[in-house]
Amino acid sequence: MKAIFSSFAIILSIAFVSFGFANVSYAAESNDKVVNISETDRDWLNGLGFSNEEINIMSDVSFNHIKEQFKGEKGEIVTKKEEYYKINKKETVKLSKQEALSGIKLAKQLNKYNLLSGGYDTETDSWIKQTLSVSYIGNGKYLAKTRYEWLYQPAATFSDAIAITHDDNVDVDNNSFFSEHRSGSGYEFDYGADRSNYYGLGDKFDLKRSIPATGFMYYEFKRDKTSDNTADLYGHYTHATSPGGFNISLSLGVLSLSGVTETQATDTAVDVTY
Fold first, then answer.
1. How far is CA 215 from CA 54, 150, 160, 228, 273, in A?
2. 255 with 161: CB under 8 angstroms?
3. Domain spans, the chain
4. Looking at residues 139-165, what average pLDDT do you find?
5. Contact (CB, 8 A) for 250 and 238
6. CA trace torsion 45, 233, 265, 248 (10° rounding)
7. Keyword annotations for this protein (predicted)?
8. How far apart, in whole angstroms, are the C-alpha atoms of residue 101 and residue 262?
9. Nearest to 164 by CA among 127, 126, 134, 119
């Protein structure tokens, strides 16, 4: 079940129509706002895998949902990995942080910034940062969370997908899923996964321009087999390069789409020891 909250939606819609830009619309269900979070709550969110950077732009909707869902529980990060990727239509390449930042700097020098689209419209390469974390939240429960941050967005933006896949020693609570996506002029929330199977959960969302897009998804899980005390999890992001509806396919370490063309998905991996 999705909910979209977009600031200044009506004003923007009128402005675009007035200047002759057709087929542009924005949802106007409610205003969104960044919540003011105390130091105590900030430390608590850190334990659930949220960085200070994303806490600084967290919406009140997400904060209130998380506070209610994990009321009385305190998380402790057991593993966390941050990776950088260069993405184009041919390949997705894992890079060091410095390689990614150097590539972005050069791309900005070579390309012309377009104020209307809110991006660099002539690029063929884009760069994204992905973080996958697992926190222990007590009573045998763990929280798997993946976050993405576009450092240099693609020129063409349609609908994209993220996912967390896992091996057979993970017992997922499907009802614990939640996601937030921030792009364009507001936030998009999802309280149920768009794809769920034996290998994990996936979520689709609209990628917009104007501000660097970022977002996260998470779900709770427990150990599934008493005979094995380890598990592998993978965080994924794939960018659709053509418009249209699509279905999400998940397998161990793999996210793919059917119905549209797409980039090769990212595959940030962590190991968990129970």
1. 8, 9, 12, 32, 27
2. yes
3. 75-273
4. 94
5. no
6. -90
7. Signal
8. 24
9. 134
Q: Which residue has the tokens 């706002």?
A: 33
Q: Which helix (H) or strand (E) holds 110?
A: helix 97-110
pLDDT in tens, 171-213: 999 999 999 999 877 899 999 999 999 999 999 999 987 677 9
| The CATH number of domain 75-273, selected from 3.30.530, 2.60.40, 2.60.120, 3.30.565 | 2.60.40
Burial class (CB in 10 A: 0-12, 13-18, 19+), 192: middle
Output the six-digit token pair for 142.
């763990």
Alpha-carbon distance of 236 to 218, in angstroms, equals: 12
| Helix (H/G/I), strand (E/B), else coil: 62 | helix
Q: How far is residue 247's CA from residue 161's CA, in Å, rounded to a whole number?
A: 10
Kind of pairing between the strands at 214-223 and 230-238: unpaired
Q: What's at 141, amino acid-wise?
A: K
Please name the residue that has the structure tokens 């909910």: 3
Taking the model in full, what pTM does it have?
Answer: 0.84
3-class SS of residue 143: strand
Read off the tokens for 208: 């917009």
Residues 145 and 218: their CA atoms lie apart, in Å, by 4
The one-character DSSP state at 26 is -
To which residue do tokens 């990614």 refer? Answer: 100
Phi, psi of 242 (to 5 degrees): -145, 155
Backbone torsions φ then ψ of 70, nearest 5 degrees: -110, 30
Q: Which tokens belong to 185?
A: 């002029």
Q: How many CA atoms lie within 13 A of 145 on its CB side?
A: 28
